[in-house]
Design brief:
This protein is of the alpha/beta class. The protein has helices spanning 37-40, 49-59, 72-83, 96-113, 134-139, 143-146, 164-169, 196-207, 258-261, 277-290, 295-316, 339-348, 371-397; strands at 16-20, 23-26, 31-34, 89-93, 121-125, 156-159, 175-180, 183-184, 190-191, 210-214, 238-241, 252-256, 321-327, 330-335, 351-352, 354-356, 360-363. Helix 2 packs antiparallel against helix 10, helix 11 runs parallel beside helix 13 and helix 12 packs across helix 13 (371-397).
Length: 398
């Protein structure tokens, strides 16, 4: 008999019932250091006082209002995002999947407004993940995620990640935009080489294409900048983000230049729950913390400490771990053993991590992480790797 909760997740046997700062507690009484943060969502940890205060205050005033009316919180948060990014305007919705889908629509609508409706195709990269809607699955390149959901919507072309020559060769008279992740998350924390994003920007300028960045996971401070593309010194035309944007509250956003968004006239797109007063209270509080002087510099500092200490464990256990990859506090460790084995071992030692493609285990900790938390996570990793290595040795001698 099917469970009341649809069984489309392979869940742990325990439930998480309480969280505070860097830690969560399970229903069996165990405490875990949360190095997954709800897959890069709980950007300020659990129950951050500023977040709790903002949501509590807003919950006593107004929860939801239709976008038929002005929403004061949207105007305030949009002003913050515009002031600290490339964007001129922001559209709010509920999730990363919705944000990417809206970005795709915006790119097509741009060319429609330019009198070029034949330009509708989007080039994206092999190994990419852009969400679970049908259009997002088509934009992504994971056959496992597509299985049983075909046929996919038309209009998406895929090229190898980090290959500008292949990207240029894929352009046709129907190409409207290029969609890329600065760091591929679900695809295995794959980071492009230096100059890739700059090259994509140059190609888009040369061919009159819209550059879309999927910063659902890389955005909102995770890499030590508000958005990861800032490290490359380039600006996109459209950017989709979500996950850490609300610090745990469900919200997504599409940031765009005025030129890219000019065709988004009334009625062209919408969202019933997008940009509610509650969501905007959460985003506003999160941004107040992240944009405060010194915060992102501290994220960058802690990321460098984490990378350095993880590198030591990788060097110590080459039979278990192959490398460390990613950017900032978006860290992946490629495993020489099955990644689920390491995830389970880390749970045994009180630390939550997240699996990804290419046999990678992710660490995506809250951005409030301190060196003591890093030491705790690395100690658990060392113990886990030691036990796995001992098991491998036993198997070999047996």
């Amino acid at each position: 008999m099917i469970s009341a909760v649809m069984p489309n997740y392979a869940r742990t046997a325990f439930a998480l019932i309480k969280g505070e700062g860097m830690y969560v507690w399970a229903d069996d009484g165990r405490r875990f250091l949360d190095m997954g943060a709800g897959i890069a969502v709980n950007s300020l940890g659990h129950c951050h006082p500023k977040m709790v205060a903002a949501l509590t205050e807003q919950a006593q005033t107004l929860w939801h209002v239709s976008n038929l009316y002005r929403v004061a919180g949207q105007e305030k948060v949009a002003d913050q995002l515009v002031a600290h990014s490339f964007a001129d305007t922001v559209f709010f919705n509920n999730s990363g999947a919705e944000a990417v889908e809206a970005a795709i629509k915006m790119a097509r609508r741009y060319h429609f407004g330019e009198g070029q409706p034949e330009k509708f195709r989007i080039i994206s990269c092999e190994g990419s993940f852009h969400g679970r809607s049908l259009a997002d699955l088509a934009a992504g390149a994971n056959e496992k995620h597509r299985e049983g959901f075909g046929p996919m919507p038309e209009g998406f072309d895929h090229v190898p990640f980090d290959n500008l020559n292949a990207m240029r060769a894929a352009i046709t008279d129907e190409t409207a935009a290029i969609l890329v992740e600065p760091v591929q998350g679900e695809g295995g924390i794959r980071t492009a080489s230096a100059g890739f994003l700059k090259g994509v920007r140059e190609i888009c300028d040369e061919f009159g294409l819209i550059m879309i960045l999927d910063e659902v996971q890389t955005g909102n401070g995770r890499t030590g900048k508000l958005f990861a593309h800032e490290w490359a010194g380039v600006t996109p035309d459209i950017l989709a983000t979500a996950k850490g944007l609300g610090g745990g509250f469900p919200v997504g956003a599409v940031l765009a230049t005025e030129a890219a968004a000019k065709a988004m006239t009334p009625g062209s797109h919408g969202s019933t729950f997008g940009g509610t007063p509650l969501a905007m209270a959460a985003v506003g509080a999160m941004l107040d913390v992240v944009l405060a002087p010194g915060f992102l510099a501290q994220v960058d500092k802690m990321a460098r400490v984490l990378w350095d200490k993880l590198g030591g464990v990788v060097a110590k256990y080459p039979q278990v771990l192959e490398d460390v990859r990613g950017q900032g506090l978006m860290v992946g460790m490629r495993c020489a053993v099955e990644n689920g084995l390491l995830v389970d071992k880390m749970i045994e030692h009180g630390v939550l991590t997240v699996p990804a493609g290419e046999n990678v285990v992710r660490m995506l900790p809250p951005m409030i992480i301190e060196e003591s938390h890093i030491d705790e996570a690395v100690a658990a990793l060392d113990k886990s790797c030691a036990e796995i290595a001992a098991g491998l040795k036993t198997e070999k001698t047996g």
